[in-house]
Design a protein that fits this description.
manganese, disordered N terminus, alpha+beta, EC 3.5.3.9, metal-binding, endoplasmic reticulum, allantoate deiminase
Length: 498
């Protein structure tokens, strides 16, 4: 490598080919060539960085923070239970393989690793003061069905890349407090319709009864763990809770899953809070019958009743001020807040017996309802429930509304947020050399493990730009340089702990 660069900077040879380049240009060319070739070179043998006007030297480590990080995201994106799309649900074969792969990367970063009774994968370094409160960095390894490769995985990979840089440069053990990375086993809630199984267990807010939830095949959470040689009882599940006195804080890096950062042209944004979320399971029961012999006027059809309920949901969430009254359930300011943040989704619907020539006897659908304001969200749920029961009574069908998940809105900690904002600013400046920008502050409409971890400790989050705001889709995409910026931001944050 050195001899190759010497050849390129030898002006005599260059002039013999009628190319006239001054030495400053050659040095710049050599630097960018090193950046280009760095993926095939050892991180301990090549320095890639710059000096600012004051002579302060900054390492950029593109071979670890960018090239290797992107390669790992692609590799993890191939670990799937489906052949033609990405699917990795709680304790599925692909989920276990992904956990094993992440554990290897944790060890590569110099961390001690283990898997707990809820399938979470842990990697930890004690630093110079093992008795100090620990910083936890985390995100989830599970995916939705037909997922993109960045949701969840990005936060894990970027954290491990930053720690690997510290380990490579013999600075990992100089951290002033322990640092632990956790790849949570389930955040999406796809398999058991109960989100945050991994992080809620660590935070101590996961009820032991969750072990007895079953999936569509009748397999319980407990049985799914047992299939992977993890024996979990109600007693040892409760023991997973971390002691709040031993945790300093939790940070999470995640794709924005929205278009704001792309619109403003910046790779990173600070999260100031996360919307509250409720998940419902609505079951409508009617009278099953022959499609050709039951007169329309005599039918008790749960399918058309469900259709009316779903249209009601859409109308209420589009125009909450047309439905909510100011009678103690909600006030004008809450309605105004709802108008800008309330979103409602029916993502799953099924019928029984599900035949083209049979009036179904039962229809079930899910509701996902989110809002920044918790009081407003509760008011919407109250009104929705009342009006749904009215529709079911009018149609002579019976309906039940089960609350499958409730999470209050979460505000991020001001101290952690300030430090993350500074780290994001430093990362962008180091990579681009530009400083004339402000790191934008955003609200999250999506739920994250930080919501569960907020019951344990203070939390902070950074968002990473994603193309078009697409997520939960194969169209999900983060540019390589933005992966680099995210990894660099975690590194800058950790450097303050040295």
């Amino acid at each position: 490598m050195a001899s190759f660069l010497y050849f390129l900077t030898n002006q005599t040879l260059l002039k013999s080919h009628a190319i006239i380049i001054n030495r400053g240009t050659l040095l710049k060319f050599s630097f960018f060539l090193m950046l280009y070739l760095s993926p095939i070179c050892s991180s301990s043998n090549i320095y890639s960085g710059f000096e600012d006007a004051n002579g302060t030297k900054y390492d950029l480590f593109p071979n670890v923070l960018k090239f290797e990080a992107v390669a790992r995201l692609i590799e993890l994106g191939k670990v799937s239970d489906a052949d033609k799309y990405l699917e990795r649900t709680f304790q599925s074969p692909a989920s276990v393989r992904a956990g094993n792969l992440i554990r290897l990367w944790m060890e590569d970063a110099g961390l001690k690793t283990w898997v707990d009774q809820m399938g979470n994968v842990h990697g930890r370094t004690e630093g110079i003061n093992p008795s100090e409160k620990a910083l936890i960095i985390g995100s989830h390894l599970d995916t939705v069905i037909d997922a993109g490769i960045f949701d969840g995985s990005l936060g894990i990979v970027c954290a491990l890349s930053a720690l690997k840089v510290l380990n490579t440069n013999n600075r990992l053990e100089r951290l002033r407090r322990p640092v632990e990375v956790i790849a949570f086993s389930d955040e999406e809630g796809v398999r058991f319709q109960s989100t945050f199984l991994g992080s809620a267990a660590i935070a101590g807010v996961l009820p032991a009864s969750v072990l007895h939830l079953d999936d569509k095949s009748g397999v319980t959470v407990q049985a799914a763990l047992r299939e992977n040689s993890i024996e979990t009882t109600e007693e040892n599940l409760l023991q997973l809770k971390y002691d709040p006195e031993c945790v300093w804080g939790y940070i999470e890096v995640h794709i924005e899953q929205g278009p704001v950062l792309e619109t403003v042209g910046l790779p990173l944004g600070l999260v100031k809070g996360i919307a509250g979320q409720t998940r419902l399971k609505v079951t409508v029961r009617g009278s099953q019958g022959h499609a050709g012999t039951v007169p329309m006027t005599m039918r008790q059809d749960p399918m058309v009743a469900a259709a009316e309920l779903i249209v009601l949901l859409e109308s209420l969430c589009k125009q909450p001020d047309d439905y909510l009254s100011y009678d103690g359930q909600c006030n004008p300011s809450e309605v105004q807040s709802l108008a800008g943040s309330l979103v409602c989704t029916v993502g799953e619907i099924s019928s029984w017996p599900s035949a083209s020539n049979v009036i179904p006897g039962q229809v079930t659908f899910t509701v996902d309802l989110r809002a920044i304001d918790d009081m407003g969200r509760e008011a919407v749920l109250y009104e929705l429930s009342n009006r749904m029961h009215q529709i079911c009574d009018r149609r002579s069908v019976f309906c039940t509304i089960e609350h499958k998940h409730d999470a209050k809105a979460v505000g991020c900690d001001s101290e952690l947020s300030s430090q993350l904002q500074s780290a994001a600013y430093a990362a962008i400046k180091r990579i681009t050399g530009e400083s004339a920008f402000d790191v934008p502050v955003l609200m999250s409409g999506a739920g994250h493990d930080a919501m569960a971890m907020s019951h344990l400790t203070k939390v902070g989050m950074l968002f990473v730009r994603c193309r078009g705001g697409f997520s939960h889709s194969p169209a999900e995409h983060v540019m390589d340089d933005d992966v680099w910026a995210a990894s660099m931001a975690i590194l800058a944050f950790l450097e303050k702990l040295l």
